[in-house]
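agent> fetching stored inputs for the zinc ion docking request
agent> found them:
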Amino acid sequence: MRSCSRCGAPLVPDAPRYYRLCLGCFKAQQKGEEAAIKRERDHWKRRYHEVAGMRSSAPAGIRQALAEAGFTEGAIKQMIILCHPDRHGNSQTANAITSMLLDLRRQLKK
Ligand SMILES: [Zn+2]
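agent> prediction call returned; pasting tokens
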């Protein structure tokens, strides 16, 4: 009779050949794997938010320098309207500048 490779308990006689664990050990193993996967996922989620957080907001000094140079949120909004690709035949330059301005606005908003 085949037995559980973990606890040695006999496996039910009609267990498929690929069964190596009794039901109890199989469940325990799955639980352990799920916990490990969850830990891994949580770790990378935290890491993602850390990195995203670092990138998302411009340091206060940079915000102030931008504001002093006239790059306020309101001004950037006007620039976005002015540069919008729809107004420039969807040109590559308009797309690139609009994308930069949107990124800048996103950073100032955080
Ligand atoms: Zn077992």
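agent> quick read of the result: The pocket of zinc ion is lined by residues 4, 6-7, 9, 21-22, 24-25 (CB under 6 Å).
agent> awaiting further instructions
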